[in-house]
Design brief:
By secondary structure, the protein is α+β, with helices and mostly antiparallel strands. It has three helices and eleven strands, in the order ααβββββββββββα. It folds into two domains: 31 residues, no CATH class; 112 residues, Tumour Suppressor Smad4 (Sandwich). β10 and β11 form a beta hairpin.
């Protein structure tokens, strides 16, 4: 990780750059990088592929597929969005986040209403790719999805080793020659 980026790495508008000293821009960038690194360490220490968090809710994703929604006595979900607030506006089965075989993540909207991923509308039954730092907006509630790429790569390597082992196994059969 580069803690002293080049000027080309700074994504600050010219208007803002005019009023902000160069040292302040670099300090802000370093603080953002430290916060990101700290979050990645926290996710890795939990053995998670990703983290899904909002204002009151933080869930470490340790499975390749998780259901988001409003938990009830009849319906169980992996991530209960009702804990964030405004539970009556959330579908019981709002969305499904799934890690694909290549390590990418997708979200499928299963709810009645549209949701937004990084400002892009996702209608019912529609699927969209998730990247690290994706902003997920569900019924006026905002969540962030962060991927731990190291854990995902480790999981994929383990899965490919297991699959390789399965394909190379063979059994000897004792046959008598007559």
């Amino acid at each position: 990780m580069d803690l002293c980026p080049e000027d080309s790495d700074l994504c600050i508008s010219r208007e803002v750059a005019r009023y902000q000293p160069e040292g302040a821009k670099r300090t802000i960038l370093r603080l953002e990088q430290c916060a990101h690194a700290s979050l990645q360490r926290a996710v890795a220490s939990q053995g998670a592929f990703a983290v899904f968090y909002g204002r009151r809710l933080k869930h470490y994703i340790r499975k390749t597929e998780v259901m988001l929604g409003r938990a009830t006595e009849d319906v169980g979900v992996d991530i209960d969005l009702g804990r964030e607030g405004r539970a009556n506006k959330i579908s019981r089965r709002q969305a499904l986040i799934k890690m694909e075989e290549d390590g990418s993540f997708h979200l499928r909207n299963l709810g009645k209403n549209s949701m937004f991923i990084n400002g892009k509308e996702v209608s019912t039954r529609q699927r969209i790719g998730l990247s690290s730092s994706s902003l997920i907006e569900i019924r006026e509630m905002a969540f962030v999805f962060e991927i731990n790429h190291k854990s995902v790569r480790r999981y994929l390597a383990n899965m490919s080793e297991k699959n390789l082992g399965k394909n190379s196994k063979f059994e000897w059969k004792d046959e008598q020659v007559r």
